[in-house]
Specification:
Blueprint: H1 3-16, H2 24-33, E1 37-42, E2 48-51, E3 54-55, H3 71-90
Antiparallel strand pairs: 1-2, 2-3
């Protein structure tokens, strides 16, 4: 694939990479495997993480403005993370 074609297709791929919202049962299942952390912590691999496993963009997790998180705001963050993560999982 040529570079110019790739550059032309990337915006369409970004739009296509959003999935359906996860229902409450799906969120609860994921939460049963993840622990809730209201503040930034090290995930054991040196990655700053917050909430139910949200990988932060920087050491202070500056993209998450309402720190420390409540369980409700951590659930909303998890749901928004899943919108991006689900399409590769749900493709048949």
């Amino acid at each position: 694939m040529s570079f110019k074609l790739l550059v032309a297709v990337l915006p369409a791929l970004a739009i296509a990479c959003t999935g359906p919202p996860t229902n409450e049962n799906g969120l609860n299942l994921i939460k049963s495997f993840e622990s809730f952390e209201p503040s930034v912590y090290d995930d054991g691999f040196g990655n700053p993480t917050i909430g139910y496993g949200h990988l932060c963009g920087d050491a202070s997790c500056s993209e998450v403005t309402n720190q420390p998180l409540t369980e409700e705001s951590a659930s909303q963050l998890l749901a928004s993370d899943l919108v991006v993560s689900l399409p590769p999982i749900t493709r048949t």
